[in-house]
Amino acid sequence: MQVIPDQDALAGSDALKVNAPSVPLPVEDVPAYSKVVTTFGQTLVSQVYVLEAEGVDPAADYGRATCIVVGGYYDGEEKLSYYRADFNPDENVYPYGQVLRNHRYHFTIRQVNGAGWETPEEAANNRATTLVVEIKTWEDFTMEMYTHGDNYLGIAFREVVFGYQADLRKQVGIQSTVPYKISWEGQSESTTIGGGLVSQEYFTVEIVTYPDHPGDVSYLVFTTRMENQTSADRVSRLKVEWENWIFYVTVTQQYAVAHTEKAVRILSVYNGTTGHLGSNTNAADGAGMRAILSNPDYFSPRGIVPYFAGFDFSLAKDQSIFKNADGTNDATFAMLTLLYGCDVLYLGNENNISAYAAGKVMEWLQESPNRVLLVGGDAPTTSPGLLRTDKNGLLSDQVDWWYNQMHVDNYQVGYLGGPGEMKFMCPEYDEATNGEFMRGAFTEQFGPVENSFNRVNIADNYFRYAKTYAGTVVPLLTVTKAPDYMVVGVDKKNRIIYHGDTSLYQLAQLEGGSKGVISGNHDKLWANIWAWVASQVIWGDRDLID
Fold first, then answer.
1. CA 357, CA 327: separation in Å to the nearest integer?
2. What span, in angstroms and rounded, lies between the C-alpha atoms of 452 and 449?
């Protein structure tokens, strides 16, 4: 057996899922295992744990494939017949299936068309012919599943945690073939799919479905009703039941002080003289923004963004840790220690991190909704570990982001002449897409972000821009000469900020930001962006899943 899966067996960078088995060599056949099934009326139910198993080549001996053999009495016969069923067969790749870790395979016998083989061994070593079996795998989110014959009821997770604010929402996936109902513990009021809200003092919940989701999938949508300004968490339990199946979902709303004592930890990976936000910074480009983020009138329990203690800055002065990490050396451990000690990772321009480190950054990001990544850009050598340059073989042209979850096509280096010729603008205000950034937390005091900027200076006239980008990315700063070219954008769904030049922070210095004062259009935009960063780290996945 192999406990930890191979790197190339992982589905994307999510370590909880695999799309290939990890079978160490040499291997030995596992002896056959037999089990008598349990009777529920006219239904027979059984389950067994099996090891991962590779699919066999279609041209190879199919007797080598892992399968199950079912024995039964056909058409009243007194002698047992045996039938073979294969795991999740794929006619194009593995016609006899393969077995993957952390998967559950549900075999339902639908029809028997004739007598089977006389022995289990014969059935195992011959193709399945007379048995019709339906095989179903669970939805990705289903972590816990109850089954009874053809019926099943599963749930994504049994705990929901909110911050202290009102009107926060989260949803929990349910996969079910039965008409389950929900009610708050201690209350008689209940509801089913489409039945509306079930309320109690602190929370509401309803069951919703989406037309483009599978027919057996629904969601429990929870909402907080009021702020929790008390000195303790509020905890309630929701009962989910169908006939004799009952389980509970614990719903917690944390109290305010628990959040106002938490700092958002920012790690800047040092990249020379520009753009970082780390401790003891002397970089002109980062200093202005660092001062704004450190202003307690803006970001603190008494500031405009009050729901956390403020930002804590640290600096990875030796970027070679991220450059040299390969999964085996000392730099790997040092890199992972820094990475998992922060909530926000800021990779400024020219970060030369390795492909291994880039993959770990993406795993770190996807493991928790309370993490945010900022990726800076500037010169052609920016972050080669995060960039792939195989489009035209030109480092400064047709550059794709290295990892597909960070997909922003054609992120180029731009040079538009002298500083006076470099003009930037914001797209038109749209509440559904960029509203949180153009009319966000700082709007009431400083006004909305305007579409056009008087100026945005670039220290060396070079910056990166994206000709095209993923649909989840919201452009916030574009080039006047090419209004569709994004220089700064936010992917809220994947929690990535694309930052086309670290020296864009320089304007915070030039407009008075070195004193920690918001005094320009550019400052307002970035203050709103960082307000979103803070809320994401503190609250996590506040909104409904798409």
1. 8
2. 9
Residue reference for tokens 């096509």:
409
The answer on pLDDT for 541 being more than 50 is yes
Euclidean distance between CA atoms 492 and 536, whole angstroms = 9
Q: Percent of the chain at pLDDT above 90?
A: 22
The per-residue pLDDT for range 297-307, each reduced to its tens digit, is: 999 988 999 88
Work out the average pLDDT over 343-356. 80
User: How much is the average pLDDT of 129-134?
Assistant: 71
Angle at 193 between CA 188 and CA 196, to 5 degrees: 65
Q: Does residue 19 contact residue 100 with C-beta atoms inside 8 Å?
A: yes
- Measured CA to CA, the distance from residue 472 to residue 474 in angstroms comes to 6
Per-residue burial over 460-490, b if 16 or more Cβ lie within 10 Å, else e, is ebbbbbbeebbeebbbbbbbeeeeebbbbbb
Query: How many CB atoms are closer than 10 A to CB 427?
Result: 18
pTM over cut 0.90: no
Report the alpha-carbon distance of residue 241 to residue 233 in Å, rounded. 26
CB 451 within 8 A of CB 427: yes
Are 481 and 356 in contact by the 8 Å Cβ rule? The answer is no
Rounded to the nearest 10 degrees, the angle between the axes of helix 284-293 and helix 521-539 is: 60
**Structure-block tokens of residue 192:** 């089913």
What tens digit of pLDDT does each residue of 307-338 get? 889 999 988 877 788 888 888 888 899 999 99
